[in-house]
Design a protein that fits this description.
Oligomer: single chain
Low-confidence stretches: none
Shape: globular
Order of helices and strands: EHEHEEHEHEEHEHEHEH
CATH architecture: 3-Layer(aba) Sandwich
CATH class: Alpha Beta
Number of domains: 1
Number of helices: 8
Length: about 260
C-alpha cells in the first residue's frame, strides 16, 4: 500500500485526478470504478478541467459506480445518479451507453446485482477503482462486519451511516437499503485509489492502513491488494504512526516509480 501525504484537500484532488488522467490518456478505453461523495468532488472537478483545458477524452471510457440507494429515483437530488451527473458524467464527453450504475429497482434485485458483476467481467474488469472512506472504515456501503469476500449485493445501512447522510435528504427519510459493490468486487480492480481529507477521517485512515485486517474495518481489506494508492491530507494522516516514514518513501522514490 502506497501512502501519499499532501498539505491539504485541494492537493489530494489534484494528485488523484492526475493518476486518473494519465490512465485515461494512456488507455483511452479504460474501465473506471467510480465513487460518489464529498471526498471525490475535487477529483471530478480536476478531471473536468483536464477534459476542457487539455482535451482529455472520455468517449471510450467505461464506468461502474460503487453504490446507490434502493428505490430512490435517479432524479432525486440525493441520489448518486444525480451526484455523478452534476459533478462528472454530465460535464465530460462520456458515452452514456458505457455508464453503469448499480441496479436499485426491479422484482429480482439480487439477480440484477449478479448481472452487474457479469457486466464488470464482460468489460474486462476494472482498471482503477476510485474510493473514499467512511468514518467507520467502510468502503462504498460495505458496513462494518461486511464479508471481505462479498460481491455486489443489497445492504441494510446502520443508524450511524444514515445519520451521516441525513443532510442530503432534508426532511425526508434516508433510505434503509442500498446496493453496493462488495469488498471482493473492489479488490479485483487492478488499481485501487483511495482519497481522504480532514480530521474526521483520521481514525478511519489509521485503522485502514496500520490496524489489523478485520471485517470491523472493511477498508483494511485494501492491505491485501497488490496495488493500492492512498492519498490523504495532513489532517487525515494525523493518526498514522508511521507518517514520517511514508513521507520519506515519497521523497526517495526511485525515478522508475515516479
Amino acid at each position: 500500500m502506497e501512502v501519499i501525504i499532501l498539505p491539504g484537500a485541494p492537493n489530494v484532488g489534484v494528485a488523484a485526478a492526475g493518476i486518473l488522467s494519465r490512465l485515461v490518456a494512456g488507455k483511452p478505453g479504460a474501465v473506471l470504478g467510480l465513487a460518489a461523495g464529498a471526498s471525490v468532488k475535487r477529483v471530478y472537478a480536476e478531471l473536468v478541467l483536464a477534459h476542457h483545458n487539455h482535451a482529455l477524452d472520455f468517449s471510450r471510457v467505461t464506468t461502474f459506480n460503487l453504490d446507490e440507494y434502493v428505490g430512490l429515483s435517479p432524479a432525486h437530488p440525493a441520489s448518486f445518479h444525480a451526484f455523478m451527473d452534476e459533478h462528472f458524467l454530465g460535464r465530460v464527453n462520456i458515452d452514456r451507453r458505457r455508464v453503469h450504475l448499480p441496479p436499485t429497482e426491479g422484482d429480482d434485485l439480487a439477480g440484477l446485482c449478479e448481472q452487474f458483476e457479469r457486466d464488470i467481467r464482460a468489460a474486462g474488469g476494472i482498471d482503477l477503482q476510485l474510493l473514499g472512506i467512511g468514518r467507520e472504515g467502510h468502503l462504498g456501503f460495505n458496513e462494518p462486519t461486511s464479508s471481505l469476500a462479498s460481491r455486489t449485493r443489497i445492504k441494510t445501512l446502520s443508524g450511524l451511516t444514515r445519520e451521516a447522510n441525513r443532510p442530503a435528504f432534508g426532511e425526508h427519510e434516508v433510505p434503509l437499503h442500498v446496493v453496493t459493490m462488495g469488498i471482493g468486487t473492489i479488490l479485483e480492480a487492478r488499481h485501487c485509489l483511495l482519497v481522504a481529507d480532514g480530521a474526521a477521517k483520521a481514525d478511519a485512515v489509521a485503522r485502514m492502513v496500520e490496524g489489523p485486517l478485520t471485517a470491523m474495518v472493511p477498508a483494511s481489506a485494501l492491505q491485501l491488494h497488490p496495488h493500492t494508492t492512498v492519498i490523504v491530507d495532513e489532517a487525515a494522516a494525523a493518526g498514522l504512526s508511521l507518517r514520517d516514514y511514508y513521507r520519506e518513501v515519497q521523497r526517495n522514490k526511485p525515478q522508475w516509480q515516479r
